[in-house]
Every structure is written in structure tokens, then in C-alpha cells.
Amino acid sequence: MKKHVLAATLLLTMTLLTACGAADSATPAPAPVQDSAETETPQPETETPETEAVAEDSTEEAAEETGSAETISFIVDITDNMSAESNTVIGNAAATAENYAGIMEIHLDDALAEQAKDEIEVGKAYVFTIGPAMTMSIPPQVTALDFAPATEEDLARLEEVRAEVSNFQDCMKSYESMSLEEIVQDANLNYALWTQEEIKEFTEFITQKGYTEDSEIKSYVNLREDLNGSLPGAAN
Question: Cβ distance 18 to 5 under 8 Å?
């Protein structure tokens, strides 16, 4: 299968976008962690009450200024709801053009998982409040703090972001020289970046190429309401 994954830094830790029709590449390694002993900033031997007070005030001000950056909201089209088995949902996520967009594995605590069993449906979109940490895995894994059904405004925003980050045209150029099996395999990794209109165009394209529901390789590329599983979900 011809594919590769381009990793970049976003959402405080990373951004991951898949590229079409390229050679296989390895999963990006986690960012190196510096030895604190090597990077330790020298401290004064003594601190006066005045300097301690200034430092405390500065810390409090910084916390107030960055408090909103502790979480981020992602709009997610749900492809797999595994909250009953593994406290996990999987979906095609986006926040802004500057933040991560693509397939995402979202972990829920017990209370949220219990809620998700009844309230989250495959083929619908939700807004997840996500903590600041994101793994370097493929797909990246995050932890949800809360979720709510996406509004029409959220869905419109999701399409706007995908229009900005989409690699659909590049993919379609690559697909001109690829077999149907290669096309489907590659698209299963990339379509999370595509708009609904682009997804519709792709499904028509592979149908013309001879793809059917009985084809040996399964396409997970569907419009929102027809989503039914994903490659990461199938692997679980």
C-alpha cells in the first residue's frame, strides 16, 4: 500500500496529516524529553520575601492568561463508539486549520463512557472538550473532559476547517496511477481531512472504478450519516 504520514507539531504537542500516494513511512517518534539536569536554570542562593512575592504574582497572572489554553474543543464525526467495551470513541476530528485535523481516538473516564453509551451515535457529530495532551501515535489519542452534540453552526465550521486543510486534490491526482485497492487503502487514512462534498465525489469515483460493498478491500469513506467504522476501530 502506498501511503505516508507527515507529522508536525500542533495542539501544544503535535499535528499529524496523512499524505497521498507516497511510500510507507514509520510512525513518528515521540518528541525527545530533555534531561532536567542539563537544562536546569541556575537559581539565586537566597530569595528575599519581595522576590518570592513577585514570582508568585507572575505565576498567578500567567495561569489566568493561559487558563483557556488548557483545553481545546474538537468537532468530531463519530465512526466508532466503543464506550461499552473500552471507554473509547473514534472519529474524524478538527478544531481549527492551525490545530490537528484527522482521525482521532478519544478516551473517556467511566462517567463519560457511561453517558456515551446512550448519547453518542455513529454517523453523528459531537463537540469534545479535550485536555492538552495528545500522543504521537497513529491515530493520536486524547482524553475527553466533556462532550455535547454538534450544532448546525459547529458543522458549518467543521466544513470550513476541512476546506482549508483538505488534501483531496493531491490525493485524486495520485489515484490516477494507483489500483483500486491502493486507492481505497490510502483514502481510508486521508478522508478525515475531506469535506462532505469531496467525500461524495470520491465515492462516485471508486464506484466508477468498480468498487462495490462486496469488494475485498473495505472503504470506510462515507458521508457523515453513512459512517460505519474505521481502520483504527477495525483493529480493536
Answer: yes
> Residue 139, preceding bond cis, omega within 30 degrees?
yes
Alpha-carbon distance 48 to 53, whole Å? 9
- Cα 197 to Cα 76, 92, 163, 194, 201, distances in angstroms: 17, 15, 10, 8, 6
Cα radius of gyration rounded to whole Å, the chain: 21
**Is this structure's pTM higher than 0.90?**
no
In angstroms, the CA 128 to CA 131 distance is: 10
Q: For residue 78, list its beta bridge partners.
A: 91
pLDDT tens across 31-45, in order?
Answer: 333 333 444 444 444
Pairing of strands 101-107, 141-149: parallel
Among candidate residues 5, 70, 20, 8, the one with its CA nearest the CA of residue 194 = 20
Residues in a beta bridge with 127: 75, 148
**Helical ranges in the chain per DSSP H:** 36-39, 49-66, 83-86, 110-119, 152-165, 168-175, 180-190, 196-209, 231-235
In degrees, to the nearest 5, what angle opens at C-alpha 75 toward C-alphas 166 and 133? Answer: 95
